[in-house]
């Protein structure tokens, strides 16, 4: 496709606006999490050590941690045995370095 054709496809046909940034997307995720969970609910997150569950866990922590309210998010690490060697432990270590408190089973 020629450059002008990709522009036409993205903006005229698909309706994209061109203002996407990771920061805006993260803020939208945080706002959606806060709106959905509210102020009084507790969240249980199962983390298998893969990227999807790890990112989800980190987003929930960032969205819901207000002052010292770390008791709102409970993380349980589930080792399903399907990840690469040591991958689950590497992800767990990274999440713990962010301050997340994972419990394992």
Automatic annotation (TrEMBL):
The keyword Metal-binding does not apply. Residues 20-105 form the GMPS ATP-PPase domain. Signal peptide: none annotated. It comes from the Eukaryota. PROSITE patterns: GMPS_ATP_PPASE. ATP binds at residues 48-54. Gene3D superfamilies: HUPs. Keywords: ATP-binding, GMP biosynthesis, Ligase, Nucleotide-binding, Purine biosynthesis. Transmembrane segments: none annotated. This is GMPS ATP-PPase domain-containing protein.
């Amino acid at each position: 496709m020629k450059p002008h054709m990709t522009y036409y496809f993205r903006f005229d046909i698909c309706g994209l606006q061109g203002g996407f940034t990771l920061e805006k997307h993260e803020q939208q995720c945080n706002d959606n999490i806060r709106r959905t969970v509210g102020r009084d609910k507790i969240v249980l997150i199962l983390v298998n050590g893969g990227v999807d569950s790890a990112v989800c866990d980190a987003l929930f922590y960032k969205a819901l941690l207000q002052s010292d309210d770390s008791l709102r998010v409970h993380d349980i690490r589930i080792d399903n045995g399907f990840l690469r060697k040591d991958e689950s432990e590497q992800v767990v270590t990274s999440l713990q370095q962010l301050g997340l408190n994972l419990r394992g089973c």
